[in-house]
């Protein structure tokens, strides 16, 4: 059983949704990211999503675009991120998922990416521009490694396709709460509840919801009907305004508040 | 003989051809987009496949191309340019004479018809040089659709005239002030808008780029250029041309001209990329000279990127060629050895801009001037009997101000040098 599956199993027994914070690796630099991830884990993160910066992140809103630009400015590479995860593994066993566009993975090499992920302790990948139809070579590279490939589903995804996504995805399914980019406005609760119900009926995997969840209150609302709650832009925005020195402490406090709201 | 050729071309056009059902041209193409957009692309694919089989759709498209766009465009024998270059007989395919001044409208008309079929009331587009933006704003006005055009602020500055034209046509021009502030950022922003508004909005992508079915569909809407040119040259010369030359940004004008000739083995084809300040300077948009395969903005193709897969910022005097990726079908035919690609520099293009203006009284777009510049290099080595078609993809009015600034700058520098000496 993968570390991600184990985490969802444990949370299911405890009757709690998973709290999954997202931060951009290398924003503002990798050593700060290291402190941030440790603070998130201490604050109650059940999984951590680490963004791999890309020059043209077309699924992302302005907050994460700016974070990617800062990370690239500080010289962040995918190899550097694998080194960071390897270092982190000496201090935390929190499942770590890389969220990356396909091209950086492709250029690093599919086999090499998988090998580096295994060696460093990366548990899974979310690749927003890699659909199941195009994912053949990548899934082949992952085969037998126990590393999860987490697919995304959207409000526009028809029922038939949800089933396909549920088959291809492993670990969990990432449900994009809205038609839009990261950091946009969250859909009305009743609508979202209905949508997540639709997804859960179609797939057997845990369903985590992301895009647009900004506050502990919203997280708790979504956590009432989802298996996991992903908070990205709000946290990245907090890190941006906190500045390098206070970034980890500030992110940790926000994580703590969300984790408490989800547990309560 | 003419009839035999025609029959061959018809069967070729209706035959099964690339891309495959999932939008791949060999290793290139495909669909690399956020999941939110996949259903919309599938719908577009279905709707387009249905429409192209319907006589009424084809008839309406043909009518609009004739009566609204002004097709067929002439295949013009450039007598003075031919004499001046002292080489082959040069014909210009006059896409600059299309309504709105470039080939872009061939595609926007087709996509506007599809938008209406899908019951969507709003269109968005990206634009570099502004020609595709103007062509989209034009069909939006013609069909009563709301229209937002994304344009990098750098491009807005160098193509001010087209910004005014779009606004006059009732479109909103949305400034894109991120990244390099040029075409690639405009495409990213347009895709983000589409992701948010996909239920009521159609994205009129302007080149043979992006996710399937765009590269195929835009090619199909543009291949009218080559179909006409083929018929026209057979009439004028009684034979096929020896060489076709076209500029390649995303590559829609080039693919439009080349595609109907692909099976005519005797016809050589050259696509001309933007060499900017020269390949060695790194300031260019010559993807085939310095790029490699990667996934970007919806498609797998040849890209200018660094070792880490980050997309490089390009440079060209011509906003329409200033882009990091090339259409996937071009990459396929480059590998197959069917189409050759090369590049010319900014200054080559500017000289060709003047040359064509002064020998033929035809002012080409700076994009198209790249094709003319390549021909200028080649012509002395080609036999006089050979026949060449250059795609004059757009007219140069939009570039006058920019060219004037460059030429004035040059004159001022030369004057200063003289005084100092």
How would you characterize the overall build of this protein?
By secondary structure, chain A is an alpha/beta fold. Chain A has one domain (3-263): Aldolase class I (TIM Barrel, Alpha-Beta Barrel), CATH 3.20.20. Chain A has twelve helices and nine strands. A nine-stranded parallel sheet of chain A has the order 5-4-3-2-1-9-8-7-6. In chain A, helix 10 links the parallel strand 8 and strand 9 (228-231). In chain A, helix 2 packs parallel to helix 12 (247-263), helix 4 (78-88) runs parallel beside helix 6 and helix 11 packs antiparallel against helix 12 (247-263). The relative contact order of chain A is 0.18. The model of chain A has no long low-confidence stretch (mean pLDDT 97). Chain B has 421 residues and is of the alpha/beta class. In chain B, strands 3-4-14-9-10-13 form a six-stranded mixed sheet, with helices on both faces. In chain B, strands 1-2-12-11 form a four-stranded antiparallel sheet. Chain B has a four-stranded parallel sheet with strand order 7-6-5-8, with helices on both faces. In chain B, a hairpin with a 2-residue loop joins strand 1 (24-25) and strand 2 (28-32). Chain B is globular.
